[in-house]
Amino acid sequence: MASDRLGYLLKHVLAQLTEAQTKALAPHGLNGRDLAVLSAIVSGEPLSQLEVAARLRVDRTSIGDLLDGLEERGFVERRRSPEDRRRNVVVLTELGESTFETAERIRLDVEESFLAPLDSPARFREDLRLLLGE
């Protein structure tokens, strides 16, 4: 039976989680991919567009479109690096920072609710990291 296959189960669990996050983030003008990009940008020193792509493990051609959309909505800006004027970096705007904080709380709430049926959500996360080799 297909529902006994690990790939099937993982795929459909991910689809349900993605759908729940998409619905919860939509009123804030974001989706899960947008939030991942904002998260990569906010975590540390200013990154170039290519560094954001590398951090997210996405193709460098697709990161441009993602950043363009976030920039059009006022969440990020591309600027010259103050340390190296030859380098451009991507930074969150004030709106991007506040939206990220709100969206991150929403993401955590959705995940908590999604994992609530499990006896040990923390153990589940640990097991997934183990499977990923982390």
Overall description:
- The chain has 134 residues and is mainly alpha-helical.
- 64% of the residues lie in helices and 7% in strands.
- It is built from six helices and two strands, in the order H-H-H-H-E-E-H-H.
- It has a two-stranded antiparallel ribbon with strand order 1-2.
- A hairpin with a 7-residue loop joins strand 1 and strand 2.
- It starts with 5 loop residues before the first helix and ends with a helix.
- The model has no long low-confidence stretch (mean pLDDT 92).
Class of secondary structure makeup: mainly alpha
Low-confidence stretches: none
Q: Helix content range of the residues, please?
A: 55-70%
- What's the arrangement of strands in the largest beta sheet? 1-2
Order of helices and strands: HHHHEEHH
Measured by DSSP, the beta-strand proportion falls in 5-15%
Beta strands, count: 2
Bulk shape: elongated
Mean pLDDT: 92
Task: Please work out how many helical segments DSSP would assign.
Answer: 6
Distance between the termini: 31 Å
Radius of gyration over alpha carbons?
17 Å
Largest sheet: 2 strands, antiparallel
Write a concise synopsis of the structure shown:
It is built from six helices and two strands. It is mainly α and 134 residues long.
Features:
134 residues; mainly alpha; two-stranded antiparallel sheet; 7% strand; elongated
Question: Secondary structure elements and their pairing?
Answer:
Elements: H1 6-25, H2 32-42, H3 49-56, H4 60-72, E1 76-80, E2 88-92, H5 94-115, H6 121-132
Antiparallel strand pairs: 1-2
